[in-house]
Design brief:
This protein is mainly alpha-helical. Helix content is 57%, strand content 0%.
């Protein structure tokens, strides 16, 4: 743990309620490193903490988020990367995250 100004500026060195930030590997660091989307992050979060925090309830929460993720892939709300080209995935991400269609000027500018 840091101290003084460093501890206030580094989220990994500061605890906000509870005592769940004690492991060397933090969920949010993994989420950033691996570029997980929200649902992926939630599944992994509950899987990482189940033995130390809420036991079976956390496993059930992970399962619930995974079920939602599967539904979103099955219905096409989240593209299946095994069935899409990298360009299709990029275009879908631009549409979902930024509301940009491939034919828009903003989309074309983002590809430069």
């Amino acid at each position: 743990m840091g101290s003084g100004a460093d501890a206030r500026n580094n989220p990994n060195d500061r605890q906000v309620g509870g005592d769940h930030y004690k492991s060397a590997t933090q969920h949010w660091d993994l989420a950033i490193e691996h570029k997980w989307d929200y649902l992926q992050g939630q599944v992994i979060k509950y899987m990482m903490r189940w033995k130390k925090k809420n036991g079976l309830q956390d496993l059930e929460k992970a399962q619930h988020f995974l079920e939602k993720y599967i539904e979103a892939v099955r219905t096409g709300k989240i593209p299946d990367p095994t069935k899409s080209s990298p360009q299709e995935l990029y275009e879908d991400n631009m549409k979902r995250c930024y509301g940009l269609a491939p034919e828009s000027k903003a989309y074309l500018a983002s590809t430069i």
